[in-house]
UniProtKB/TrEMBL annotation:
It comes from Paenibacillus agilis. The lineage of its organism: Bacteria, Bacillati, Bacillota, Bacilli, Bacillales. SUPFAM superfamilies: PP2C-like. SMART domains: PP2C_SIG (SM00331), PP2Cc (SM00332). Pfam families: PP2C_2. Keywords: Membrane, Transmembrane, Transmembrane helix. This is Serine/threonine-protein phosphatase. The keyword Metal-binding does not apply. Residues 39-277 form the PPM-type phosphatase domain. InterPro entries: PPM-type-like_dom_sf, PPM-type_phosphatase-like_dom. The keyword Membrane applies. PROSITE patterns: PPM_2 (PS51746). The chain crosses the membrane at residues 6-25.
Length: 278
């Protein structure tokens, strides 16, 4: 009889523990929502390539949200090795930051470390990667780039690219603006798409880094993508998709679906990350 009398108390105690557990989970979830004002979406396709040389990652810490995307150079061996090392190095170094004032030197430092580690692992073999990295912290965007992958801000239905492409074409355009060569020398140059700066290059120059962080507005979408995206979709097409009431994940997946549907014979690996600032 005494065992039976204790059953209701055990039930009540069990319910109380369950309620407290659910309350803790709820508070933790609410805390996560309050500390992160960024929604993240991504998508990737191998395209017509035999291997996936693109690599990407994102992480959120008390400092902010970081996203990194690297496009391993398919024309060289070990593109996947280079892109993986580069992204992992940037994420690892970002996780070490404990104050926002460390963000500006973070980009060139991580780039130098990535380049050294790639060169060391290649051991004389050919390989390399482009890389774009973005950090949203305290309502501001910090960024760095090397190669021809893209960082863009989608704001007020407009696609705004914020980094330069480190290609021979950019060098030729500068020479054209200085009136050293004719316009045809830029447009018709057979090697204009060749990279002149990338990670895994023994003569690596430097990473392009924002001169000052960009203040963000609610609704801004920061887009990181490899050239497999921008060589397949026009800016207008990207603007139309990003203007739709889609989550970052759904928008990224829709863009990848279009790339796959077009099935271009030489379609490169294509990767996109979308960070929506709320």
């Amino acid at each position: 009889m005494s065992d039976m009398n204790g059953v209701p108390y055990l039930i009540v105690a069990g319910l109380a523990i369950l309620f407290i557990g659910l309350l803790i989970v709820k508070l933790r979830m609410e805390g996560n929502e309050d500390t992160s004002n960024v929604r993240i979406g991504n998508g990737q396709t191998i395209g017509a390539r035999d291997e996936q040389d693109d690599y990407f990652s994102s992480v959120t810490t008390p400092i902010g949200t970081a996203a990194v995307l690297a496009d391993g150079m398919s024309g060289l061996e070990n593109g996947r090795l280079a892109s993986t090392i580069a992204v992992n190095t940037f994420i690892r170094e970002f996780l070490k930051l404990d104050h926002p004032n460390m963000l500006e030197p973070f980009f060139p430092k991580a780039a130098r470390m990535s380049n050294s580690e790639i060169v060391r692992n290649l051991k004389g073999r050919r390989g390399g990667t482009t890389l774009v990295a973005a950090v949203i912290a305290d309502e501001q965007l910090y960024w760095g780039a090397v190669g021809d992958s893209i960082i863009a801000i989608f704001r007020n239905r407009e696609w705004i690219e914020i980094n330069e492409k480190h290609t021979l074409e950019s060098v030729l355009k500068e020479r054209y603006l200085r009136r050293e060569i004719a316009k045809e020398d830029v447009v018709d140059h057979p090697m204009r798409k060749r990279l002149v700066n990338f990670l895994g290059f023994e003569r690596f120059k430097h990473m392009e880094v924002c001169s000052a962080p960009i203040w963000l507005q609610p609704g801004d979408k920061i887009v990181l993508c490899s050239d497999g995206i921008t060589n397949c979709l026009t800016e207008l097409e990207l603007e139309n998709i990003l203007s739709q009431p889609l989550s970052p994940h759904d928008a990224a997946q829709h863009i990848i679906e279009i790339v796959e549907q077009r099935s271009k014979p030489n379609q490169d690996n294509a990767t996109i990350i979308i960070l929506e600032h709320r």
